[in-house]
Amino acid sequence: MPMDITSGPTYSTSTICILLQWAKNSSCGADREHGIVWSQPAHSLFNAFSHSVYTAGLALFLVATFYGYGGYMASFLRLEIFRYISKLTYGIYLLNPIVIGLYELTRTHFPHYSYSEFAYLCTANIAFTIAFSFIIHLTVEKPFMNLERLLFENKNNNNNKTTESEKQRSSEQQQQQTLEQQKIETNV
Fold first, then answer.
1. Residues annotated as region Disordered (predicted)?
2. Whole-prediction pTM
3. Phi, psi of 13 (to 5 degrees)
4. What residues are paired with 36 via a beta bridge?
């Protein structure tokens, strides 16, 4: 008879062990293997709130990381590789459905679900998407960014020069006004 998670033996384990066990169970469906069955209210609550609670938790984590309380995860996200991946994110966003579609159109066998096949498929899709995104970044995005810099560099420099000259004129006008006010005050 399967064990209900709401009424079971209590164990004294560390929080890290509990989190690791929870991650293992949720990632590979091992709760069914060990005979743990959720009750109907537990399923209902999970289905009702899982997406919104996950999103809220992710938002809170990002805010905490922004304000310097990210801990190990913040130092992990500051690794140099994420600087390079950040340049590819838009291409990854655009190319991922295309890579998945190409895989589906070139498939030679019927899909069969297994954990290993699903993990392999996801890993391969991500790797191909990043590779294609890198190629698109080098052949399309980077040349156009360089072209934009060349075309609009003079315009930006001219705008900066005019603003500097305008600042110089306004400071000269302010100096003249202060001198005139000092003259008026000394005359009175």
1. 157-188
2. 0.49
3. -125, 165
4. 3
Helices (H) and strands (E) in the chain, counts: 7, 2
Task: Say how far apart CA 70 and CA 110 lie, in whole Å.
Answer: 44
Q: How far apart, in whole angstroms, are the C-alpha atoms of residue 45 and residue 54?
A: 13
Q: How many CB atoms lie within 10 A of CB 137?
A: 17
Which of 35, 30, 43, 45 lies closest to 8 in space, CA to CA?
Answer: 35
Spell out the SS3 assignment of 128-152.
HHHHHHHHHHHHHHHHHHHHHHHHH
Spell out the residues 6+ positions from residue 97 whose beta carbon is closer than 8 angstroms to its own.
none
Mean pLDDT across the stretch 163-173? 72
Contacts of 151 (CB under 8 A, 6+ apart): none
Q: Where are the domains of the chain?
A: 1-37, 79-188
pLDDT surpasses 90 at 129: yes
Q: What are the backbone dihedrals phi and psi of residue 3, each rounded to the nearest 5 degrees, phi first?
A: -90, 135
- 3-state DSSP assignment of residue 37: strand
